[in-house]
UniProtKB/TrEMBL annotation:
Annotated keywords: ATP-binding, Nucleotide-binding, Transport
PROSITE patterns reported in the protein's UniProt record: ABC_TRANSPORTER_1, ABC_TRANSPORTER_2
Biological process according to GO: transmembrane transport
Family that this chain belongs to: Belongs to the ABC transporter superfamily.
SMART domains to which the protein is assigned, alphabetical: AAA (SM00382)
GO molecular function, one term: ATP binding
Every ABC transporter domain range: 8-250
Name of this protein: ABC transporter ATP-binding protein
CDD domains to which the protein is assigned, alphabetical: ABC_NikE_OppD_transporters
Taxonomic source organism: Leucobacter insecticola
Length: 275
């Protein structure tokens, strides 16, 4: 039994790309739950369907069959206004901190954009934006600057702040640290853990790196060729020999490299010391 109350539930979700006449099924009846306040890792080799499941939850790809519920409400086929309203509860942080922020907009405008449909006043909006910047440890003075003035790690903090402004209950993190160096990865992961501790937000954390996922998630789900093949806590999936897919992923992952592992541990330790 999970210690978390159910929040998101995907049941037998099927997604097909291609045409009606020639469909290419990439998710085969995938079922997964994310509890309220839980972090669930979604790992698997490239092309296994991780991002597609995230997109199906966000309504970015149509679900051919199956059901997705959020807090008991069926959100499988929401569109238009109802889908936009759901953005208050479900947000996303993408992998690419360079491509995901509009280079023509100031940080203040980027962060207040999600509030534009909510009816909050300009003044309230600015105050929420400052609060979120503080949460991700960026000074309020960044408000008038542009994305190209920031490093990859800082941009990812800005993307996280943007995801937070509407105080969502679930954030889909799609490879949020893959484009960052090891030390920056560690600081961004630490931030995500801290935010979860402070706000109780849930994460579906998509990654190909089982080492990263194991270090921050309560449970890990493993995908293989469009199927969800294993699920368990980090220790179970990486140590229990019955979890053969996870063992294989771990062996193929950079975290199996002892030099990289040592570097990662060093980065984490340095962070803990400096905190
Ligand atoms: N827009 C699309 N049109 C057609 N096929 C797609 C599309 N997006 C993804 N696919 C295919 O769907 C399958 C699953 O892709 P998906 O991006 O979900 O995998 P992934 O596990 O997230 O991979 P990666 O780790 O490389 O991002 C792959 O075979 C991919 O080629």
């Amino acid at each position: 039994m999970s210690e978390f109350a159910p929040l998101l539930r995907a049941e037998n979700v099927v997604v097909e790309y291609g045409s009606k006449r020639k469909p290419n099924r990439v998710l085969h009846e995938v079922s997964l739950e994310v509890g309220d306040g839980e972090c669930v890792g979604l790992v698997g080799e490239s092309g296994s369907g991780k991002s597609t499941l995230g997109k199906a939850i966000l309504g970015l790809v149509p679900v051919a069959s199956g059901k997705i519920t959020f807090d008991g409400r069926d959100i499988t086929h929401l569109s238009g206004r109802a889908r936009r309203d759901l953005a208050a509860d479900i947000q996303v942080v993408f992998q690419d901190p360079y491509g995901s922020l509009n280079p023509m907009m100031t940080i203040g405008d980027i962060l207040s954009e999600p509030l534009s449909t909510t009816g909050v006043s300009h003044r309230e909006g600015r105050s929420i934006v400052s609060e979120m910047l503080e949460r991700v440890s960026l000074p309020a003075s960044v408000i008038d600057r542009y994305p190209n003035e920031f490093s990859g790690g800082q941009r990812q903090r800005i993307a996280i702040a943007r995801a937070l402004v509407r105080k969502p209950r679930l954030i889909i993190c799609d490879e949020p640290v893959s484009a960052l160096d090891l030390t920056t990865q560690a600081t961004v992961l630490e931030l995500l853990i801290e935010l979860q501790r402070d706000t109780g937000v849930s994460y579906l954390f998509v990654s190909h790196d089982l080492g990263v996922v194991r270090s921050i998630c309560h449970r890990v789900a493993v995908m293989y060729r469009g199927n969800l093949v294993e699920i368990g806590d980090g220790d179970q999936v990486t140590r229990d020999p019955q979890h053969a897919y996870s063992q294989r992923l771990l062996a193929a992952s950079p975290v199996a490299d002892p030099v990289l592992q040592a570097k990662r541990r060093e980065a984490w330790l340095a962070l803990r010391v400096s905190a």
